[in-house]
Structure formats: structure tokens, C-alpha cells
Amino acid sequence: MSIKDAKRVAACLPVFAGMAMVFSGGIGEAANVTVRSIADANKYMEHIYDGYDYYYVKGSNNVLNIRMNDLGNYASYTFSAGPKGGGSGHTLNMYSGGGKYFSLIGSTLNNNSIVMTDGRVYEAVGAKQTTGNQAMSGNSVSISGGSVDFVYGAYATSSASTNIQNNHVTISGGTIGSSVYGASGVGTVNNNGVTVTGGSFDRLMIWGGYSAYRENVPQNEASENTISVSGFTANSIQIIGGEANGVAVATANKNKVILGEGIYTGNSVTGGEARAVSATADGNVVQVNGGTHSERIYTGYAVGKDTGTAIAGNNKLEINDGSLGGFKIYGGYATDGTTNIARGNQIIINGGTMTSTASEIIGALAYNGLAEDMP
């Protein structure tokens, strides 16, 4: 049956309150599935048990709608809008239900999305890969309500180097229990982002892009990622525009963090952070446009491992508004290497209030190294 014919049949079916209405596509066809219970999921989705319960939707360009009751604190379920083999172009809408260990996954590759308006989940991941090294791009997660511990626009957990770009997380409401990543993986993690305009956070921990350490991957990069934050509440914060943690070479360049209204307490804000034998954090920007700040701010942060080289150059911190005090701020920070260089970094203060408890404002710091002015 074609999609067009199936839609004609569906249009003639009566709708009964409390029942799951499902249009399930065959191989190569789109599927639109609504589940209101685990019984619905067992009936309309592919169920795989591998120590945990996984549910998949067969078809391409699928839409999965979840309207369930909360399943409690002990059952573990993972729902994916894509088929077991993964893919692109799938959408998962979370309207209600879930549970403490309930996970949402768009699919595995490109242009998958999750939209969450209510419910309770452990993690929401636009695209997730556990094996292989296929590129991941154009995935998104949008949260306006409900509660979730971990959020990823795209997430690769394998040890293989891959290319993860142009993924995004948007949070306008709801409660976030732990961490948010525009994208996280191994290898190249560039041009990803997180936008926060509301919501409640236990700990505001955000990475625009995170390239993780693996012994078999010599080069890691997290560049040109962007975070914009405002209108939230949080007990403590840690925000990093782009972080690359590598073996031989790590690069975190041209990342940007924009801070608006909110209370920033606790840990730190970093534009770009690189850790490797050769670590470079260059051209990163942190812009303070409002809020109350008592955290540390590092615009560019480079750590040279194993007597290596750390370079923090051409980073810029711009303070336009807000109240800042009880903190340390650095334009560029280079440390732990045999050669540490911090050059061409800037702190520009256009406005805002600097309270008497402000401790240190340092344009560049290179431990046992070289700190230079703009050329």
C-alpha cells in the first residue's frame, strides 16, 4: 500500500478515546506512530531486548509520538524514532510519560530531531552512534517542558574518529538535571551549538562541542561552536564553548559563548579549551551581556600535556553589561607544557558593574612561559 493510499484509509477510520492511532510504514516508507503504553510499543514498534529494552520504528522519515504515563524509577526503556539499523530524517515528539531511566533517541545519522514538551527522561539524544565512524550532522533537540538529565544534539560513544557538525540543542523551559551538549564525540566536533532561554538547572553544565580523549585518536578538534545562555535558574554553572581533549594534538578555536541575564555561580565559563601534547586555543570569544557573575571566566584555555606546548592566542573577552564580582577572569591562559604561550588576548570592558570583591582581571597568563601583547 502506498503512503497516499494508507492516508486515505486512515482518514476513514473512527477515532476512539484512549486508543493509539498508528500509521506504520513498511520498509522504505514513512511511519507515524503514537504510543500510549508499553503494550502499544510492543504492538507497533520493533522490540529488541539486549539487557535493556529498546524500541524502534520501521521505515524512513518516521514520526514517533509518545503520550504515556510515567513508568516509575526502576524500568529502563530506550525509544528511537528510527529503525534498528539507524538512519536520517526521523522525528520524536515527547508529550508525556517516561521515567527515571527512560531514554529518547532520534536515530543515528543526520537531520533527526527530538521535541520534548513534557514528561520525564534520563537522556534525550538527537542522534546517537555506539559503533562506527559515520558523520553526524543537522540533528537537534528542543526542550520546552518536562525533566531530563542529559541532553545531546548528537552523541558518538565509539572510539573511532568521526566528523560531527551542525547539531543543536534549544532549551526554553523544563528542568535539566545534569549536562547539555550541542555535540559530543571523538575527532572533529565543529559548528555545533546550544541555546538556553529558560529552564531550571540543578547544575548548568553546557558544552557547545566536546571532542573526547581516545588513545587511538591522535588529533581532536572542537572549533566554531556557539553557546548562548539567558533566562535560566541554576545552583552552579560550568559552560564551555568548545573543548578538545586529545593525545598528540588538540585544537579549540573560534568558539563563542554569549552570556545574558541569569545568576552565574560556582565553577567557570570557558570559550575554548584544548588539552594535548600540542594544545591550541585561539580566537575564542566570551561576551557578557548581562547577569550576575561570581564564576571564573577563561576565554581561551590551553593545557600542554606531557611536557608539551600550550598556546592560548587571540582570544577576546567582552563585557558589555552585568554585575561581576568574586571571580578571576582571563583573556588567555596557557599552562602545564614545557612551552606555554599566551599572546594577542584581549579583555574589553564597555559596561557593567565590577564589585569590590572582584579579585583578578588578567589579559593573559602563561605559567613559566611567555605572555605577549597584541602584535
User: What is the number of strand segments?
Assistant: 36
Q: Helical element count?
A: 2
Instruction: Please give the radius of gyration in angstroms.
Output: 23 Å
* Main sheet characteristics: 19 strands, mixed
What helical percentage do the residues reach?
Answer: under 10%
Cα separation of the termini: 69 Å
Q: What's the rounded overall pLDDT mean? A: 88
Summed up, the domain count is 1
Oligomeric status: single chain
Structural category is mainly beta
Shape: globular
Q: Hey, roughly how much beta strand do the residues contain?
A: over 45%
* Uncertain residue ranges: 1-28
Task: Describe the 3D structure.
The protein is globular and about 65 Å long. The protein has a 19-stranded mixed beta sheet that branches. Strands 1, 4, 6, 8, 11, 14, 17, 21, 25, 26, 28, 30, 33 and 34 form a 14-stranded parallel beta sheet that branches. A 3-stranded parallel beta sheet has the order 10-13-16, with no helix packed on it. The protein has one domain (3-372). The protein is built from 2 helices and 36 strands. With 375 residues, it is mainly beta. The longest helix has 9 residues, at 3-11.
